[in-house]
Write a structure and sequence with these properties.
- The chain is an all-alpha fold and 187 residues long.
- It has 9 helices and no strands.
- α1 packs antiparallel against α2, α2 runs parallel beside α4 and α5 runs antiparallel to α6.
- The longest helix is centred in the first third of the chain and has 17 residues.
- It is elongated.
- The termini are far apart.
């Protein structure tokens, strides 16, 4: 864990506006010492996680302009910051990844992400209480909303397609849906 060199008496401003968040990213980018870069990322990450969960860090990210333009500027700042680090340490990569999960940065795939989330919801809503796919559909929807990742393909989509298209229940069984794999008949 990085160590901050700030005195205990230092009063820190909460990083709770888009401007302060982008300024913190810029400060991290401009800092030559990688340990201090990590400290700045951790500080930002902690502030973002505490927004509206802690009285001292109220969420003041109200959009006073075009939210798409704000997100675009945030994406640009984030890309510049991450591109500025040559040979990042494992620790830097870890905190940068955690920060990316919390920032609303999308590289043009926003509509696709929304489509995938809608499809997962529709898939679940189309099931009734007796449908053996209901549990699977609920897990898929939760996973898609939690975080889109390659894991969704390998754990949910590919096993489901193997069952439906190829009548092969083995991948679904291996993914942990033993009852579904043995009882559901895709015919």
């Amino acid at each position: 864990m990085p160590k901050t060199n700030l005195p205990v008496t230092a009063k820190m401003l909460p990083l709770n506006t888009w401007e302060r968040i982008m300024a913190q990213l810029a400060a991290s980018r401009e800092e030559p010492d990688q340990e201090k870069k990590i400290d700045l990322l951790v500080e930002l990450l902690v502030n973002i996680r505490l927004l509206d969960k802690e009285e001292r860090v109220p969420d003041a990210r109200d959009a006073k302009g075009d939210i798409e333009a704000i997100h675009k500027r945030l994406l640009e700042e984030t890309v510049l910051t991450l591109d500025s680090v040559k040979n990042p340490s494992d620790e830097y990569i870890y905190y940068a990844r955690e920060l990316l999960k919390k920032l609303p940065v999308r590289g043009g795939g926003g509509a696709l992400i929304d489509d995938i989330r809608s499809a997962a919801e529709y898939f679940e809503e189309g099931r009734d209480g007796d449908d053996p796919l209901l549990s699977f559909a609920g897990d898929l929807r939760k996973e898609v909303h939690r975080k889109l990742s390659p894991r969704i393909l390998t754990r949910y989509v590919e096993p489901y397609l193997a069952l439906i298209r190829d009548k092969n229940p083995d991948p679904l069984f291996k993914a942990g849906y033993m009852a579904l794999a043995t009882t559901f008949n895709p015919a």
